[in-house]
From TrEMBL:
Key words, A-Z: Hydrolase, Metal-binding, Zinc
Protein name (record): Histone deacetylase family protein
A GO MF term: histone deacetylase activity
UniProt record similarity statement: Belongs to the histone deacetylase family.
Source lineage: Bacteria, Pseudomonadati, Pseudomonadota, Gammaproteobacteria, Cellvibrionales
Gene3D superfamilies, sorted: Histone deacetylase domain
Cofactor: Zn(2+)
GO-annotated biological processes: epigenetic regulation of gene expression
Pfam families documented for this protein: Hist_deacetyl
Positions of the Histone deacetylase domain: 28-338
Length: 345
């Protein structure tokens, strides 16, 4: 399968994130994509292509344009006032009963447009964020040109980003942008399957009241795991979208491949029932047993089987890279899913 990747994505590299009350070097770092790229090349997955450039309208189809303008302007505004020594980071959040007013000051905007501290911006961030969206869009166009499958090696990831909020290392929701692009290219029904360890709250939120995009996600029980405020089993969609959202929260620590596979088969059955024209996978590898911020127990060989199971749906399939922080094993695990799929085609 073709792989889309851009070195511009390396321009997003933050200093710290807060972890257990302590500033900690970021888990979401450029070397993650390096490891994946290295393995997919080593194992001859396919040709690596540069993304094409897309207008920002492709992004604002699923994001608020004020939010996107904020992402673009945040760093210059922050730097002008505070200098370049630290990343622009949110530090004040809206009250539960706040007025929906965007504050004038950059610190107010950082809080308005975010929902946690795991998102900051520095000098190269916006360029990398745009590039990551272009990588997803280019992957979608490879599918639209008739290829059965493609891999968009996106960084930063996207599935936590909603129409107007960044969070969980995510800024632009790459998979949502790609899904919308495929709709606009004439695909009538699109399914998104999110296998990242964390609930894809942003993707759910963007498509929650739509019946043209089905969203399924398997993840750590949000009662005990990030992102805490969504991902529960009774969130099934709203209005026209009722029945088009499927969450399968699983127990922390005891979820191994036996448990996971059953959840995956439920998602596959639901996606078949939805009867879509194209499938997108939010491919997070943080379900791995040695992931430093997660607590499922999948082993490297299980990812090969995951790829085979996804292939069994016999759909055109775009893989969009999301999380996964066990950097030494991340490349192998990612390549296992993609080769598991490709070799059973
Ligand atoms: C992004 B993705 C550890 C807490 C981490 C944010 C997790 C974001 C995960 N310092 N909180 O879904 O892999
Ligand atoms: Zn994750």
């Amino acid at each position: 399968m073709k792989i889309v990747y851009s070195d511009d994505q390396r321009l997003h590299a933050l200093r710290y994130e807060m972890s257990g009350g302590e500033p900690t070097p970021c888990f979401e770092k450029p070397s993650r994509a390096d490891m994946v790229l290295e393995q997919v090349i080593k194992r001859n997955l396919g040709e690596v292509l540069e993304p094409k450039e897309y207008s920002i309208e492709h992004v604002t189809k699923v994001h608020d344009s004020g939010y996107i303008a904020f992402l673009e302007n945040c760093w210059p505004a922050w730097e002008a006032e505070f200098g370049a020594a630290n990343d622009a980071t949110p530090e004040a959040f809206p009250m539960h009963d706040f007025r929906h007013k965007v504050p004038a000051h950059i610190k107010g905007q950082l809080g308005y447009y975010s929902f946690d501290l795991a998102v900051g911006l520095s000098a190269g961030s916006w360029q990398a964020i745009k590039s990551s969206a272009n990588v997803a869009l280019s992957g979608a166009d490879i599918i639209a040109s008739g290829e059965r499958t493609a891999f968009s090696l996106c960084r930063p990831p996207g599935h936590h980003a909603s129409a107007e909020q960044m969070g969980g290392y995510c800024y632009v929701n790459n998979v949502a942008v790609a899904a919308q692009h495929l709709r606009d290219k004439g695909y009538k029904k699109v399914a998104i399957l999110d296998v990242d360890y964390h609930h894809g709250n942003g993707t759910q939120s963007i498509f929650y009241n739509r019946d043209d995009v089905f969203v399924a996600s398997i993840h750590g029980d949000p009662d005990y795991e990030y992102p805490y405020f969504s991902g529960y089993g009774d969130e099934t969609g709203e209005g026209a979208g009722l029945g088009c959202n499927l969450n399968i929260p699983l127990t922390l620590h005891t979820t191994d491949w036996v448990v996971y596979k059953e959840a995956l088969q439920r998602c596959i059955a639901a996606i078949k029932e939805f009867d879509c024209d194209v499938l997108l996978i939010s491919l997070g590898l943080d379900t791995f047993e040695n992931d430093p911020i997660s607590s499922f127990k999948l082993k490297s060989e299980n990812f090969t089987e995951m790829g085979k199971l996804i292939e069994s749906m016999q759909l055109s399939t775009l893989f969009v890279f999301e999380g996964g922080y066990a950097v030494e094993d991340l490349g192998v695990n990612t390549a296992n899913v993609l080769l598991g799929f490709q070799e059973s085609m």
